[in-house]
Design brief:
Chain lengths: 646, 208
């Protein structure tokens, strides 16, 4: 049986995302939709494994906005639904979200956003807490694993009480961390969908679901927010921990609660510092806030990333100054804590120690001196494409084609594993020059080629992965065709959402629930738009370079090259070598080779190493994926491949 | 009730464990298995992990915090590791200089995975002697074993992580035994892989 369906009262080790999934199941979830993105993907992934047992409908949608629409339909029909995404996904969904919050909802609906302070697996550390305030939607933030489950369950109840969507925000250190969780009961009954729409337009429960008349609906929405605050005032998820008369009060939320607790114990300040932890962070329950602000005059706010809680607290305090008196605040705004990157216990210890004037007992001096001596011995380990990754071969050919073309062309990058080509230029052979949001490479490229009238006369390429193609590239591609932007657009099609763990996408004939579905064909879409389309296998370096060189040379219209090769980590390929590789030491010229070690300095497959003693290339069989590509790299033909037995 | 379930007690409470290695070495699986064993033994375990981009050939790390009392911050504070398990030797040092202290114990695989920068010649990889001497200076106990060789002998280098778990259990630093491993591994793994994992575990146990 799936761990996710453990019986009530059992204690299990859940990843934060599993705890969120379990909480949704305990709430009687019927529909779940999302778009994969680290650190959010495991919520939907886990739900997808129990669709039969729990009578669920689960889908990976093409993007976050569509996912939210799918989830909202369930809510309109009275069912409970969840929509899951990473932080920047909320930006994508936000247009619909604005209207949804205004129209109101029916069955409980929760938008789960898993955010990435410190950008551990993102190219931004965007915050969606501000969306809650801007779009007037209640916001919840779990502070540990048990709460990740319990607060998720409660979020559905809250949503149904106020008849509006609720946002639940997690962060990487919660979503991808694990801890003990005691399971609650899973409901026996499943929901029945009924969409009622024959009432008046002003009747939020029986009329059509619509955000107009705007002023009336907006008034209703604000009443719902007020109702939420009333519930927040007594919520057990907002809790004070600490002495009766603390010298300092820490106000915190999310995993920062655990950092604060740890910092207090590391400094031995349990008797002097208290913590007010908010599980309900917007709108702030001000009566509760006032009660605890009275405890002391020194307040420190610990949160990630921007001073959201701090701003809200300060605004609230202005209204209660007469009752609570003047306070001193420590937080992001005065620089006590950084407002970029993620926090941890060490950062909180440092800040807290300074305010409370206590020193943290650190390591003995002799030990730190040894550390200083040893640290320089440790070589950096850069991120790189996996051994056998199709992207390394693709960028190799892209670089070759651009060199042959000779006009100084460049590539606009996009989001996926292949973003590494932009993050670390050597990995992409110095071809990728921009990297922004999903699908932006193609839009940027079509903008760049229009600058030839202003003197920028270079060929411009854009790359994107298969999943990204469906998510956000199609409109940019149509734009390029419509405006005669003659970019060369390359789809790095590795048959799945590799970066986040092979979730299916519309190009595959299988759904999130494992059912067979029609595959949406990328080449056909591109041809239908009117582009010239070519397909190649990136492992065929020669053929790919040739095709690409001729595409780049053509001007006047949109050109598309689809590079098809399955990701090295995909279940189909993993652990199976197509070729056995060996370096012929007679043929390898070592440092004397005129190639400047193309194999081990430029190509950079981690499995193709350099034997320091023999001064020749060598294959590390333990990590070599057996893709055979390096065979075509060596001008000496010293890297030999033999077909592996099945 | 929790206390009754804890048959053996922790040498330190909380006990801070870091499992480190290179993306693709089975770091996450090792931390799950170990954590599962400790939860079965009645402890609160908090695992801090990052995956995603870091999986692609970079350094990876899981923080495991074992406590009889409560969940803890998923990140171990600097200088506060009690046990470091490294699937790759230079990664042992990388973690050690940040989280080490005079009482730390390190169990490291000796099999090297070269960083790209070393292959290209931009950086140098320390010699095994240098690594040994660093471990000598920065730890209270250390073990350097060729877990990958043992795993290759069993037919799959990826089993190196289980070999390391076997070795760890035999260091007797944690309140878990071979039976706990058997119980944990039967949960999620198919029967044929079962035997192989047990063999890997035993191979590791013998190395200590
Ligand atoms: S996961 Fe797949 S696509 Fe990503 S770097 Fe590895 S081989 Fe390439
Ligand atoms: S065959 Fe060559 S390029 Fe492919 S993984 Fe092995 S060493 Fe790397």
């Amino acid at each position: 049986m799936s761990k996710l369906l453990s019986p009530a009262k059992t204690e299990v080790l859940f990843m934060g995302n599993e705890a969120i999934a379990r909480g949704a199941l305990e709430a009687g979830l019927s529909v779940a939709a999302g778009y994969p993105g680290t650190p959010s993907s495991e919520v939907i992934e886990n739900l997808a494994t129990v669709t039969k047992e729990r009578k669920l409908y689960v889908e990976w949608s093409t993007n976050e906005k569509v996912a939210l629409e799918v989830a909202a339909a369930a809510s309109f029909a009275g069912l409970r639904s969840v929509c899951v995404m990473k932080q920047n996904g909320v930006n994508v969904a936000s247009d619909f979200l604005l209207h949804l919050a205004a129209s109101g909802t029916r069955g409980g609906i929760v938008l789960v956003t898993c955010e990435d302070p410190g950008a551990l697996s993102s190219v931004n550390e965007g915050e969606s807490r501000y969306f809650a305030r801007m779009l007037e939607i209640p916001l919840l933030e779990p502070a540990d694993f048990q709460e990740a489950k319990d607060l998720t369950k409660w979020a559905f109840e809250l949503s149904e009480k106020i008849r509006n969507i609720v946002i639940l925000r997690s962060v990487t250190r919660m979503s991808h961390a694990s801890g003990n969780v005691i399971c609650g009961k899973l409901p026996d009954k499943s929901g029945i969908a009924r969409f009622i729409y024959d009432g008046l337009i002003t009747d939020p429960l029986r009329g059509p679901v619509i955000s107009t008349p705007v002023v009336i609906k907006h008034t209703l929405q604000q009443e719902k927010v007020k109702k939420a605050v009333e519930l927040f005032e007594d919520s057990p998820f907002n809790k004070y921990f600490g002495p009766r008369h603390p010298e300092l009060l820490i106000i915190t939320s999310s995993v920062c609660f655990l950092y604060s607790q740890e910092a207090i114990s590391m400094l031995g300040l349990q008797k002097r510092v208290g913590i007010l932890k908010f599980g309900c962070t917007w709108p702030l329950p001000t009566k509760l806030l006032k009660k605890y602000l009275r405890l002391t005059d020194k307040i420190m706010i610990v949160e990630e990333v921007l001073p959201f809680l701090e701003e809200n607290i300060k605004v609230a305090v202005v209204g209660m100054l007469k009752e609570i008196g003047i306070k001193t605040f420590y937080g992001k705004m005065d620089g006590t804590l950084p407002s970029v990157g993620e926090l941890n216990a060490d950062l909180v210890v440092h800040a807290l120690g300074k305010i409370m004037k206590v020193k943290y007992k650190s390591l003995p001096g002799s030990y730190t001196r040894e550390i200083k001596k040893i640290a320089p011995l440790i070589p950096e380990r850069e991120l790189t494409f996996c051994p056998g990754c199709p992207h390394r071969a693709s960028f190799w050919s892209i670089n070759n084609a651009l060199q042959l073309d000779g006009r100084g062309g460049f590539v606009c990058g996009d989001i996926g594993c292949y973003a590494m080509a932009a993050l670390s230029p050597a990995i992409g052979f110095n071809t990728v020059r921009t990297l922004h949001s999903m699908g932006s490479g193609t839009g940027l490229a079509s903008g760049f080629v229009k600058l030839n009238a202003f003197g920028l006369e270079k060929p411009v390429l854009a790359v994107c992965g298969d999943s990204t193609f469906y998510h956000a590239v199609i409109p940019a591609l149509i734009n390029a065709q419509h405006n005669r932007a003659d970019i060369t657009f390359i789809v790095l099609d590795n048959a799945g959402t590799a970066m986040t763990g092979f979730q299916p996408h519309p190009g595959l004939a299988v759904s999130a629930m494992g059912e067979s579905v029609p595959a949406v064909d990328i080449p056909k879409i591109c041809s239908a738009i009117g582009a010239k389309v070519a397909i190649s296998d990136p492992f065929d370096l020669e053929g790919t370079s040739r095709t690409l060189t001729s595409l780049i040379a053509e001007s006047g219209s949109l050109k598309v090259l689809i590079l098809r090769q399955i990701c090295a980590l995909s279940p189909e390929k993993k652990g199976k070598k197509k070729f056995l590789m060996q370096v012929n030491e007679e043929l390898c010229l070592g440092e004397n080779c005129g190639c400047n070690r193309l194999c081990t300095r430029i190509f950079r497959c981690p499995a193709l190493t350099w034997d320091q003693i023999k001064k020749k290339a060598a294959v590390d069989e333990v990590i070599c994926a057996g893709c055979g590509v390096c065979y075509s790299i060596c001008p000496q033909k010293a890297i030999m491949r033999t077909e592996a037995a099945e | 009730m929790r206390d009754k379930r804890m048959k053996m007690s922790l040498a330190k409470n909380p006990m801070n464990i870091i499992i480190t290695g290179v993306g693709g070495q089975g770091n996450v699986m090792a931390s799950r298995v170990l954590a599962g064993m400790l939860v079965n033994a009645g402890y609160f375990v908090t695992i801090g992990e990052t995956f995603g981009m870091s999986q692609r050939g970079g350094s990876v790390m899981s923080h495991l915090r074992v406590s009889s009392k409560s969940a803890l911050s998923p990140q171990i504070p600097q200088g506060r590791a009690d046990i470091i398990i490294a699937l790759e030797p230079v990664e042992a040092l990388r973690v050690l200089v940040k989280y080490g202290n005079p009482d730390v114990a390190v169990l490291s695989n000796s099999r090297v995975v070269y960083p790209i920068g070393v292959i290209t010649g931009d950086f140098t990889y320390p010699s095994l002697d240098e690594i040994e001497s660093a471990l000598e200076k920065l730890t209270a106990h250390h073990w350097l074993i060729d877990a990958t060789a043992a795993a290759v002998e069993l037919g799959n280098p990826v089993l190196g992580n289980i070999v390391m778990i076997g070795a760890l259990v035999n260091t007797a630093m944690l309140p878990i035994d071979c039976r706990a491993f058997e119980r944990e591994i039967t949960k999620d793994i198919s029967a044929d892989k079962h035997k192989l994992n047990l063999a890997a575990f035993d191979a590791g146990a013998k190395m200590i």
